[in-house]
Design a protein that fits this description.
By secondary structure, the protein is of the alpha/beta class. The protein has a single domain, classed as 3-Layer(aba) Sandwich (Rossmann fold). The relative contact order is 0.14.
């Protein structure tokens, strides 16, 4: 599959033009190891380094869609890996700010290097399991590696009307903080690398 075919398949799955445009602008080949560049636009997860992977594009698009992003949102991604989702987020949240936390030193350094031109992205290299309280509250939180349970402790770092999208075991959860309380939806049938703590 080439990039145009991938974009066409994302459109066919009903993703917004905003999301598809972000995928169009970000070069996935920049985030994959050199020997896998030929697979950059296949809709599949690819290994990056130290056991971490680059999620498949349709899964990333699905999670971005559940975040219901607005251009001025403050977003936190936990387990930001190679920085691919951060790059996509920065294209959608153009007036906002995107924070990434990555525990694997080499990966964090590499992603900082990839994204050094993105003014609205900041990457911290440390354990992200506790979130990022010093920069809270966040409008949106994305957890790209699988937790063993729903990280409810992060709800305190979410703004009013905030949305948390998290990989939990083999499901994706969307958790919305509303005036009426917390609303949860589960979407099963996914596979993720476990969150390292």
């Amino acid at each position: 599959m080439n990039k145009d075919e991938l974009l066409a398949s994302l459109r066919k799955k009903g993703f917004s033009e905003e999301i598809v445009t972000a995928f169009q602008k970000v070069k996935r080949e920049d985030f994959v190891p050199q020997h896998l560049v030929g697979y950059a636009y296949e809709d599949m997860a690819l290994p990056v380094m130290d056991g971490s992977t680059l999620s498949q594009p349709s899964t990333v698009a699905f999670m971005l869609n559940l975040l219901e992003l607005k251009e001025d949102n403050k977003v936190l991604e936990i387990g930001s890996g190679s920085g691919y989702a951060l790059a996509l987020l920065s294209e959608i949240v153009i007036k906002g700010k995107v924070y990434g936390i990555e525990i694997i030193q080499d990966l964090g350094v590499k992603s900082r290097d990839y994204l050094k031109d993105k003014q609205n992205v900041e990457i911290l290299i440390r354990d992200g399991s506790k979130g990022l309280p010093e920069f809270a509250p966040f409008d949106r939180i994305l957890i790209s590696a699988a937790s063993s349970e729903i990280p409810r402790h992060l709800l305190s770092q979410m703004a009013e009307e905030g949305i948390l999208v998290a990989a939990v075991k083999n499901s994706i959860f969307q958790i919305k903080k509303t005036k009426e309380g917390v609303m949860e939806k589960e979407f099963p049938g996914f596979a993720f690398v476990p969150l390292v703590e």
